[in-house]
Amino acid sequence: MEEELIIPSGNESKDERYNSLYPQICSMIDGETDIIANLANVTAALKESFDFFWVGFYLVKDNQLVLGPFQGPIACTRIAYGKGVCGTSWKENKTIIVPNVNSFPGHIACSSLSQSEIVIPIEKDNEVVAVLDVDSEHLNHFDEVDQKWLTKIVAQLKF
Fold this sequence. Notes:
Strand order of the largest sheet: 3-2-1-6-5-4
Order of helices and strands: HHEEEHEEEH
């Protein structure tokens, strides 16, 4: 595997950018058995391709979410079950798209610069084992296109 991303430059749609990135991520993690290495490369690929404000994983450990590999400013280290967007996504085992984090009840502000967020739960054996958290400094940044592709990407991760 080459450690270089081919990032479209121009006026591609978000869908086209994900479509270009997805096979590269699959190739990058194919054959690598270390989950931390794969999580780290996925966060870097997403951050580099989309310039998201923050991209990272929280791993379920001892009934809480613990910070895993990420790209961006320092982050909250632990999140309780059902708390904030990440904890709620874990508890409800569903993707949550928040157009404006300031209107989400109980939002945990790791950074006041974050304005919108998407969280994708990751399952193994019908239990959530981690979540992918992506933040933007722009309101209304995430939509069904992000949900579709980010869900496809995390489905490739083998916990």
